[in-house]
Design goal:
With 281 residues, the chain is an alpha+beta fold. The protein contains seven helices and 13 strands. Helix 4 (184-192) runs antiparallel to helix 7, helix 5 (196-223) runs antiparallel to helix 6 (231-252) and helix 6 packs antiparallel against helix 7 (261-275). It is globular, with a radius of gyration of 19 Å. The mean pLDDT is 94.
């Protein structure tokens, strides 16, 4: 059974770990709290797949840092949680936040097709499980849209980790912060990588993450009442994301990628420092 969800969170600004944490944040604290997930604009690449750097942090660290930003803290926390363990956790809580492999999630277009760590919420529904997932994205296998689904518990994947979350007393909204490393080595790694198709596939995911993070940061600062001149810059990031996807599809057909793709990435990463500079109050 499926039902469309109408999440109050801005799903188009959030990645697949943040989006259901955002749902919990607004549910516990009220509308708009989830925008604090964008308080810290970070560009600190780490070693990733195929010998390429990535801005995608490990999911558990991403969850813990995000929870702190929105005023939530993990309570019961477990690793390698099978469906029966998720059920036991859900029976004692209003919702369980879990991360597992999207390949095993029957409600997503990735099911049986693509492996990636993905967050969802699990709760009880009679003798079965209610899954809630606010993820909103176009995929190569069709759209992923926010919704609620009921399944027998055994249909749920084993979670790499799962937790319950509760409000932190004395919460104060975080101040905007920039953590931006130099982009030269990052861009050079993608420029020089010998497997062009692998580099472009990874770059498509990277630009998707980078663009959403910048939109989320701008939205949080607008939520705080800051006036910023970031619209043109964000449109350039949007165009870069589209260009990277088109470049990947061209490479899959044996055609060259647009020559301007990586120089534009370097230009945008450099411009972030000025566009998003935190002005003293």
């Amino acid at each position: 059974m499926t039902a469309p969800a109408a999440p109050c969170v801005r799903t188009g600004l959030l990645d697949c770990v943040q989006v259901n944490l955002a749902v919990l944040a607004d549910r516990r604290h009220g509308p708009g709290r989830h925008l604090a997930l964008g308080a810290r604009l970070r560009f600190r690449p780490e070693p990733g797949p195929d010998g390429l750097p990535t801005v995608d942090p490990p999911p558990e660290r991403h969850l813990r840092e995000g929870a702190a930003l929105v005023g939530l803290r993990p309570d019961l926390f477990a690793h390698r949680v099978p469906a029966g363990g998720l059920r036991a956790m859900a029976e004692g809580a209003s919702a369980v936040y879990a991360v597992a492999d999207s390949y095993d999630m029957p409600w997503l277009p990735y099911a049986g097709r693509a492996h990636m760590e993905h967050g969802f919420l699990a709760g009880t529904h009679g003798d079965g499980a209610e899954v809630e997932d606010a993820y909103d994205n176009e995929t190569a296998w069709g759209p992923a849209r926010p919704g609620r689904w009921t399944f027998p518990w055994e249909r749920l994947p084993t979670a790499s980790f799962a937790c319950t979350l509760s409000p932190v007393p004395g919460y104060r909204p975080p101040r905007p912060e920039l953590c931006l490393d130099d982009a030269a080595a990052y861009v050079e790694a993608y420029t020089a990588h010998p497997d062009r198709l692998a580099a472009l596939r990874r770059l498509t995911a990277e630009t998707w993450l980078l663009t959403r993070a910048r939109h989320l940061h701008a939205a949080y600062r607008a939520h705080l009442g800051e006036r910023m001149d970031a619209e043109d810059h964000l449109r350039r990031w949007d165009r870069l994301t589209s260009t990277a996807f088109i470049a990947q599809r061209r490479a899959e057909r044996g055609k060259p990628a647009p020559a301007a793709l990586l120089p534009e990435l370097a230009s945008l990463l450099t411009a972030d420092r000025e566009v998003f500079a935190v002005r003293p109050h």
